[in-house]
Amino acid sequence: MRRFWLPLLLAVSFAAQGAIEAYRFDDPEKEARYKVLIDELRCLVCQNQNLADSNAELAQDMRRKTYEMVQQGASNEEVVTFMVSRYGDFVLYRPPLRSSTALLWVGPFIIFAIGVGVLISFIRKRGRERAPELSPEQIARAEQLLNQGKDRDQ
Amino acid sequence: MKARFLIPLGIFLVVVVFLAIGLTKDPRDVPSVLINEKAPEFVLPDLLDPEKQVRSADMRGRVWLLNVWGTWCPECWREHDFLKYLAKSEGVAIIGIDWRDERGEALAFLRNKGNPFLAVGFDPDSQAIMDWGVYGAPETFLIDKKGFIRWKHTGAITSQLWREELKALMQRLEAES
User: Fold this and answer.
1) What are the two backbone dihedrals, phi and then psi, of residue B20, each rounded to the nearest 5 degrees?
2) Region of poorest pLDDT, from A12-26, A79-93, B106-120, B145-159
3) Do A45 and B135 touch (CB under 8 A)?
4) For chain A, percent helix, then strand, then coil, each to nearest 5?
5) How far apart are CA A32 and CA A114, in angstroms?
6) How far apart are CA B120 and CA B105, in angstroms?
7) Residue A42: closest C-alpha in chain B
């Protein structure tokens, strides 16, 4: 059984690798940085994919540029700055904290704080409220009403 | 007391309004960071004559359009007739960049459909295009006399866009010194 599956699995993994071009690096550290970069940079054409996942031609171009820059010794920041200065913050999956993105970063915490506030006020209010005092006639009437409902259900 | 039951409805309506606004926005319309920035310089081989070069620097002192196209892009085919109209009847200076294309196909395209471009740079490997932050075609930039990008449009230039936006803007830039 294993003899049958192994070549098949190998073939599948090769096919998956064939989608992305192989670059040779003179330094494993550069290769690692390249992999981090194409993982963090976003493709503009297939908007929910990063450069590593996308096989769009634009992503290929951007990967090639990333490779060239990394191979020539550019730092990660230099590559990111290069991409952002051309394609905008859109290429970043993690947008920088700016006045225009402040709401994006702080928004969830604001909503969380509002939620906690509402919850606390709700609990406090319930703690203060007591069941209203009922006269014996009211209790009898309530029981009668409740029993009526039961009869109907049956 | 009754108003409490309206709270979920209120929240629902607010969400609906936000979602409705979201629907009208095109996620592909990524704002360009290059607006009001200096246009990146390019030197590309001329599509029509590989011996010659097309340089952005030659357009200094003019108001011009840079149109990025390719024969593989259906919108570019659709846009082409209007570009011809702009060049011929409105006297707009358009420089083309033929992007990720085959020279033979691009030449045949221009021969059959006419050539609205003052010059066409040939950029099969995205050498120049990358500096312009182009991520699709057609894409059109408006460059002023000092060489700054003043406007950008992703997608085809239409007569409506020309009437409502581009024409007035170009006239204003022409008036600048």
Assistant:
1) -65, -40
2) A12-26
3) yes
4) 70, 5, 30
5) 42
6) 14
7) B135
Whether B131 and A65 lie within 8 Å, measured CB to CB: no
Task: Confirm if B44 and B122 have CB atoms less than 8 A apart.
Answer: yes
C-alpha closest to that of B154 among B72, B56, B31: B31
CATH number listed for the domain at residues A22-91: 1.10.8.640
pLDDT tens digit string along B75-111?
999 999 999 999 999 999 999 999 999 999 999 999 9
Residue type, A133: E
A53 burial class (0-12, 13-18, 19+ CB within 10 angstroms)?
Answer: middle
- Please give the residue of chain A at the shortest CA–CA distance from B33: A88
In whole angstroms, how large is the CA radius of gyration of chain A?
31
Chain segment B7-62, per-residue pLDDT in tens: 899 999 999 999 999 888 877 777 778 889 899 999 999 999 999 999 999 999 99
Q: What ipTM is given for this predicted complex? A: 0.76
- Give one DSSP letter per residue of B51-99, joined into a string: TSEEEGGGGTTS-EEEEEE-TT-HHHHHHHHHHHHHHHHS--EEEEEEE
> Residues of A14-50 as b/e, b for ≥16 C-beta within 10 angstroms?
eeeeeebeeeeeeeeebbebbeebbebbbbbeeeeeb
What is the distance in angstroms between the Cα of B136 and the nearest Cα belonging to chain A? 7
Q: Are A46 and A35 in contact (CB under 8 A)?
A: no
Question: What are chain B's domains?
Answer: 30-175 (3.40.30.10)
pTM listed for this prediction: 0.73
For tokens 């700055």, the residue is A81
